[in-house]
Design brief:
Strand order of the largest sheet: 2-1-3-4-8-9
CATH class: Alpha Beta
CATH superfamily: Alpha/Beta hydrolase fold, catalytic domain
CATH architecture: 3-Layer(aba) Sandwich
Helix content: 40-55%
Radius of gyration: 23 Å
Number of domains: 1
Order of helices and strands: HEHEHEHEHEEHHEHEHEHH
Distance between the termini: 56 Å
């Protein structure tokens, strides 16, 4: 009888241990599943490193953050590149777009249920048929055109970048000069056709969106940013006064705060 009681006790202890492991694994899976991957898409005249201050802060809070290399060749083809990266990510995603990157996340096909939120950071949020250049010119205030340096491409289109001597005043006036010198030297050009390509059906029509507006933006006038946020039915719109177009570099805390709200 004593031996049988000992075997039953041992069996119950083993079952409890297995159940404990199962519960531990399940709770970890749930906890992991609660935090979406933050996918960040840069715009023209920048690269993935422009998100570094934002990524650093998100990682400190336990988020996985990925800066996708945006080809800057055309809205539809750039969105296809983004879709390929999204397809490789397990679990929910918060998409964050800066500048022209906003047009790209607007055209992402992997919308639901994987993409739970869209965050626009001084970004374009076009409606169907609209182009980024059209929206930038909708209200006065953009001085981008006079700062551009064109390079003719073999296909008849043109690559556009900002003249290094004008980069800081146009793109990142609130970023230290030594840092903007590096940003100017490593900027990636955008094809002119991309800025003039009509957008497809907008993801913001069916996916919740959040907007951060840069108050001193010389690329996309503040009025244009506010117009797009209102039209998209933004869940929350935050204006960062005196922030340049490079607001993710100069004011990363404000960007992170909004991304965290969208990630809840």
């Amino acid at each position: 009888m004593h031996r049988r009681k000992h075997r039953i006790t041992a069996l119950l202890a083993a079952l409890a241990a297995v159940a404990g492991l199962a519960l531990f694994g399940t709770s970890n899976a749930v906890a992991t599943g609660q935090k979406p991957t933050i996918v960040l898409v840069h715009g023209a005249f920048a690269d993935g490193s422009s998100w570094n201050p934002v990524i650093e802060r998100l990682q400190r809070r336990g988020f996985t953050a990925v800066a996708v290399a945006n080809p800057l060749r055309g809205v539809a083809s750039d969105a296809e590149t983004l879709d390929a990266h999204l397809a490789a990510i397990d679990g929910p995603v918060v998409l964050v777009g800066h500048s022209y990157g906003g047009a790209v996340i607007t055209n992402a096909k992997a919308r639901s249920p994987k993409v739970k939120a869209l965050v626009y950071v001084a970004a374009f949020a076009p409606a169907e048929g609209e182009a980024a250049a059209q929206l930038a010119a909708k209200y006065p205030g953009s001085t981008l055109g006079e700062t551009l340096a064109p390079v003719a491409l073999s296909d008849g289109s043109t690559d556009l970048s900002i003249k290094p001597s004008l980069f800081r005043q146009q793109f990142a006036a609130d970023v230290p000069a030594r840092q903007t010198a590096l940003m100017a030297a490593t900027q990636r050009p955008i094809r002119d056709a991309a800025l003039n390509e009509a957008s497809g059906a907008p993801a913001w029509a069916s996916t919740p969106s959040w907007f951060l507006l840069a108050g001193a933006d010389k690329n996309i006038p503040l009025r244009a940013q506010r117009f797009m946020a209102d039209r998209a039915g933004s869940r929350a719109t935050v204006t960062v006064e005196k922030a340049s177009h490079a607001v993710a570099v100069s004011r990363p805390d404000a960007v992170v705060d909004l991304v965290l709200r969208a990630a809840r």
